[in-house]
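Hello again,

I reread your note about wanting to compare the complex against the isolated chains. To keep things tidy I'm splitting this into two emails, and this first one only covers the full assembly. Below are the input lines as submitted, including protein chains and any nucleic acid or small-molecule components. They are followed by the predicted structure of everything together. The single-chain runs will come separately.
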Amino acid sequence: MPQTEPRSAFDTATAVARTEGGGLAAELDPGWDVGGGILNGGYLLSVAARAAVLESSHAHPVALSASYLHAAAAGPATLTVTPGPAGRTLAHSAVVLADAAGPAVTVQATTATLTADAASFSSPMPAATPVQDCVSIAENAHLAPSSVSVPGLTERVDVRLDPLTAGWALGQPAEEPMMRAWLRFADGREPDPLALVTFADALPPTSWAVGLFGWAPTVQLQVLVRALPAPGWCLVEARAGEIAGGWLDEDYRIWDSTGRLVAQSRQLARAPRT
Amino acid sequence: MPQTEPRSAFDTATAVARTEGGGLAAELDPGWDVGGGILNGGYLLSVAARAAVLESSHAHPVALSASYLHAAAAGPATLTVTPGPAGRTLAHSAVVLADAAGPAVTVQATTATLTADAASFSSPMPAATPVQDCVSIAENAHLAPSSVSVPGLTERVDVRLDPLTAGWALGQPAEEPMMRAWLRFADGREPDPLALVTFADALPPTSWAVGLFGWAPTVQLQVLVRALPAPGWCLVEARAGEIAGGWLDEDYRIWDSTGRLVAQSRQLARAPRT
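Full-complex prediction:
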């Protein structure tokens, strides 16, 4: 008998099922936390994106804008998709992810069908240290500030920090809030548009690069998925444009293993207290 | 008798009034178009932001994410604000701008109270040609591609293109989709957070820089307002990260006259057909 391929941790944790009443439900996995039991914002957005795609005639999320209303609790969640205008090129919808306490994440979703078309312009992948010479976050969790609990996310997304942007982990923060890292799922599941949505919020807070430690809760996050990623490691570059007045932005660009820009994101977060 | 200062074109065109029934209404001004009677997406988002602020205990929009469902018609519009969680630091809400045909723009809004706090990090303003040596779009409307009608927006927002990024207007497109320009309102109204929301979508499509002319309708736009802008000209730099598969992103950064980064935006748009 043929063996059934085991479902990846990501596909299991982001599964969305139709309930008997016709609604959509998910079981939020406590293992995708960023420390302290707080579920990762990118993970939650992947769940919402899966719901948007389920209710769309298009296969891929291409633009998602999410407001994080409260920290969603692990466990049962409902997903309510309100369809908007839809056509041959794209479809709009609104998605609400709710836990027992009510709406936790509200999302404006645009779905479309991504192709393998060559780009007429694509930002080139920046020079980065080869992945085999990078620093595994999972293997160096003991280097994290002692106030920080080890996030489950780091066991599911394999993050390899470019040592050129990892001085903060060795007590030598940089002048510029920028990090680069190679990412893939720890269990080898290949990237796809839904995975890129999680990758778009999977690094430590960008402010850590300049030595501002502590969590930076996401307030609003926009993710654009631009192309179908090739198998293999993705390179992520995260920059903050400004840290001021208790606020921080984080701007991600993600390239696939062929060097193609496949996703972009920007979030407004609360800045760690100094 | 003291003279009443005339209200600026921007404040008049984005005014939001409470109706007898307790709702909110605006009169969308046909003069803020981008050609062909299509109202500018940034202008529409400023109207929605004004509604969000009206219904918030906080004074400023700090994060707005908008989906553009259909081209809003000039004339009467309603604004429906659904409040979300609100606190001392920030407040969430959802805003729907509707014309006679129904919801045209849906917006997730985060309001807060911006301060004049110094930044602990702020991306420096790029080198740009001084404004007096830049190229006025309004004065050079005759250089636009003949297929393009002159947008009303160019008469209300004074855009001075850096000649170093304006080769496209002279038949010499660049390799890189990037434009820089100085912006202010034509009637001298000083910038504020609501104005920055319009400035965040006020340049010609970034694809024009590489010679891909034609309109690029906005699908989703996120604007972050980071600080209160000082009076005077703002510098805007717009870049596309990728043009592919019929899609284009436009990434704006805006600095005020003191060189402080005051706003950022990113939009996904349909790319002009080639």
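For quick reference: The domain at 9-112 of chain A is CATH 2.40.160.210 (Porin).

B.
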